[in-house]
Input
Amino acid sequence: MPPPRTREKALRHRLAELRGPEVQAKALDARALAALAANPGCRRRAILDGAGVDKARLASALGAPSVFGQSQFAFVRGNAFEAKVKADGGTELLRLAHEKLDRSAEPPAGASVPDLTAQGPEGRAARTALALREATGASGTWTLLDHPMLALDVAGSPAFLEPDAVIVHPDGSWSVVEIKSFPMLDGSADPAKVGAAARQAAVYVLALEEVAARLGPPARVRHRILLVCPKDFSNLPTASAVDVRKQRAVTARQLTRLTRIQEIADALPEDVCFSPELPAEQLAAAVESVPATYAPECLSSCELAFHCRERSREAGAVTCLGRPVRAELGGLSTVGEVLAAARGEAGDPEDPVVAALRRAAALRAEALAAREVAGCR
Amino acid sequence: MSLITTLARLEAVSRDRAQPAATVRHRHLSDRPLVFVPLTTAGEAGAPLGALVGTDRDAPRLLVVPQPRDRDLRFAFLAELADVVLPYVDSYGEAVEAAERTETDPETGKRVKVEVELCADAPQLIVPSRAGVELVRLLGRSMRFRRTAEEDPQAPFPAPPRVPLLGRWLTHFGERARVPGSSLLLAMTDVLSRHWATGQSSLEDQHLGALLAWIDPPEGRGGAEAARERELARDADGQLLYPPAGPATDPAFDNKLLAPAIEAYDRARSALAAAEDGVEADARLGELTAAERRVRDLVESRTLPTWRAVWQGLDLLRELPEGAHVAERWTRDRWSYTGHRERVLAGEPPQPRRDDPVTAATKLATREREQARLEAQEALDDPLVMAARRLSGEAFAGEVTDVVMTWTESRRPSPRPLVTVRTDDRPHLAEGARVYRSSNGKPQTAELVAREEDGGVLVLRVLDRMGRGREPEPGSVPEKGERLCFTLFEHEPRGGAKLPDPEETPWTHGGPPGEEPAAEPADPVTEEDIL
Output
């Protein structure tokens, strides 16, 4: 077995090969990581993300383009709101943090906002770690880190993450700030959007904990994050503390479960390459060489979902109809199998799933036949 | 989702066309529904961009906000919307019928019947999708606390008259839509997927176009292929051939078509403002009108396909016969409409931002009761729904093989016939458990006396609805050879325990209400408000 250093190098080299020559790696962001954790068994997504393949371009090259995109209206408004929240050296943001997260601390009177600019993501991550160390040492003051850069090891390759902000409290503990442009209406916001924000913030908390563990005396990363949203129908910021312990635990577990990239890469044939420059058939074959676990939820989180959906439908997989459907049908995984079992053409009648299917089919046929007759009396 | 629905979905896949998930229509459809197809601006918390609205499928009214960030234009949109919606809502208030309602007499504290007027029919609002229902709520919330210039002359940015009233009505519609089985405000995707099972997941069923493609594919085409086209097909410019049903728009549409059109409108407007003389202003007014026209055309092009789809959905639903209990549930909607109308006419303040504990408890209890009622009624109205209950052991159907008359042993014996039923179903029944069947439209109760070893033969004792005499009334006892269907659930489920009167509210729920709550203040307004 080669020493770890060389192994890591070999993997990096292998991933660059998979991405294709001259293709820039696409960085993983927290949103992608949170989505990745939502479907941890998908080897296809794991290897493509791990290798930094641009899945949107890949999907277009495969002829099944993704539908993700951001409207410039949403983009402009999101940026304007974030700028407003952070204006004046973060006065308003720190006031909200004090009010919602840390009322017992000294109210912030002017915060230090260290400069975090540096070359490349590695440089910025190092600069952020340094700033965090300094701020943690300087007790009794509030520090606002605007767009820090954090590194997180994901299935063997580093991902660089950029939270909206991180706050260092006077007691030296750290909090993640997530700024979103959906409104908080009468104190409550869309639960689906809050959930997505919490999952995203949980990834930042995990990354911060890695940094914190490396400090002399480890710093404390708070598990309540500050979610900042516009208030009602205005553009004024309001905030709420969101407990992300659960999301953090789930994400941490899913990240360790993420099928090891090394393992997947080793299982691939030598000449596989995902470069979007390649002809469609060759790409399709390359993508096909890694198994995927498609479920309809992928449609809202993965650029390749439409391609996988087509394949999954062609194979007649029942998961196309939703994960609960799959769970209900036991060992039967294709539409053909299930229907044959229901019609009594195949399957073991002793199997409770097959028996239930046959009863269901009989009852359904009876009810449809009785359609002309008045209801069941 | 029951196994029967799953099976229907799988059949839909193999037959490439949606399969029935109901044999009757479980929701009321008005003869004159108001269809509302709204669009919003991305990232602006439901700031309207435009809408098609109306009761005539051939003549929708197009409302457009050419610059969604402009408060005056948004107000103009809402005022126009009020001009369409409020007359429609009011038109159902004229015709009333006499009805009775039980009320607590304030002096004696007894429950007494009072004669009241109930509106003979009620308005019905139809939006394309569930997100549309949420938008109706949001619009309602944004408008109902607004102040008009008449109410508060000092208020900055006063709302046009009638806009707060529209807010109160939309809030009522949105609130009512949360009651299971109600039909005042319906999302077309929800109603269609209640009645048909498609060969795609329920997530994908949220796309109205794709859903309709499965149910009613174009001549000679398969459901899957047609649905995929509706979902994804784009023209040479990258625009979707079938725009999403909204209220959110496609980002490609926003970036490539809408943004330039809105920018052109802004430019034309500043040019008009900067015009120095009448002749120049005239020319620039022409440009402004043309720019506005362009935005209007864009909005129309994205809403018209959805408008047609909603009406197509209505046509499909109307082909199904109405379920027997649908009219009864619609009567509850009529009560809801009548009640809100009375509150508005009595000058009550708008619905509060947050319900007080008593109101919240009442609403929850209502929703739970209506959910149980809906489940029971749908099963009774529809053999396909009943089949799912039979599969899950909550009902059974079978043939009467024997009837033995017995009587109670009291001084005035009442009939207690023993009915033997042979069934292939496997109900989860223990001895002494109650079962119910529908006898002349009324639920008749029986209890399980014995069950044969293999579970397929049940002996039931009929307990009620046989008249007062010693001999049961004709037709009230099942006869040998009759096919019956018994349910383990009650046909007219009772709600939970009655809630205490507001004055008796326990301290755990905030105690008795204090003095009248102060009127809710209007939302503070700032320069960059979005609604």
Notes: The mean pLDDT of chain B is 90. Residues 3-244+302-351 of chain B form one domain. Chain B touches chain A through 65 residues (CB under 8 Å). The first helix of chain B runs from residue 3 to 15.
